[in-house]
Every structure is written in C-alpha cells, then in structure tokens.
Amino acid sequence: AKFFIFVLGFTLTNMVALGFVQVCTVLAPDVGTANTIVGAILSAYDLFAGFLIARNLIPNYWIWMNYASFLAYPIEALSANELRGARIECRASEWVRVPIMIGNSTSSGEERLVCPVESGEEILASFGLKEERMWIDL
User: Fold this and answer.
1) What share of the chain is helix, strand, coil (3-state, %, to 5)?
2) Tell me, what's the pLDDT at 130?
3) Which candidate in 39, 48, 81, 116 could, as Cys together with 65 as Cys, close a disulfide (CB 3.0–4.6 Å)?
4) How many CA atoms lie within 13 A of 87 on its CB side?
5) For residues 65 and 122, what is the distance between their CA atoms, to the nearest angstrom?
C-alpha cells in the first residue's frame, strides 16, 4: 500500500508543479522571463518546504512561506507514508552514552547507552511533521 500512496503523491505533485509552471509561462511576456520567474519562485518554495529547513526551525515571520509552498505538503505526506509504523534498530556504533541522573546531579559518573531514535514517528516529530495529516496533504 505504501508504494501506491507514494506513486499517487508523486503523480499529484508533478501535476501541480506542471500546472504552476504553465501558469507562470502564460503570464510572462517571453520565455526568458518565465524561466527566471519560475526559477526564483521554486527556489523559495524549495527553501521553505521543510526539506532544506525543517518546519519547526523556520522562523515565525517566514512560516507563511511554508504554507504557501505546494512542495511542503507532499514532503509531509510522503515522509509520513514512509516512516509511520517504522521501528528503527540502532547498530552498536549508533548508540549514544547518556549520563544517569541522580536527583539534580550527574556526579555518579555512571552512563547508559540509548538509541537516539527508535521509531519513525520520532523522526517525523523532530522535523515538525504530523503523521495524521498524510491524507490531507495529498
């Protein structure tokens, strides 16, 4: 099922992008201007879509660009599709040493090893993405 959701999301995103480029081309006076306009707008959309800058790291005064970007929605939907229900196993080299807290002090010197990420939902949350919005975003 995940494969078909991916194909659906990929196809819909391509159709929206094609429509966006066609509208910009029709509105521009010539091909050179259309290329410049499309390139500039898509660069801004790429930057604020949540792939280069995670949604939860975008400053509040720029978050509107994330909502305006038609690329932000498939990134969230396809990430949720891929990561929901995923269990992540850490290799020995990926374990992180964490000091054991006793009260408010770590003076005991004891540490334990933990896996920094254990599920796909944790990865989604770290990027500010919501699994339950997958179908809304498509």
Assistant:
1) 60, 10, 30
2) 83
3) 48
4) 1
5) 25
- Nearest CA to 130 among 52, 68, 69, 50? 50
Residue 9 parent element (H or E): helix 2-27
Element (H, E) at 45: helix 31-48
Torsion of CA 84, 12, 47, 39, to 10 degrees: 160
Cα 2 to Cα 64: distance, rounded to the nearest angstrom = 30
pTM: 0.73
Greatest Cα pair distance in the chain:
71
* CA distance linking residue 128 with residue 59, whole number of Å: 13
At residue 114, the pLDDT reads: 82
Nearest Cα neighbor of 76 from 134, 126, 7 is 134
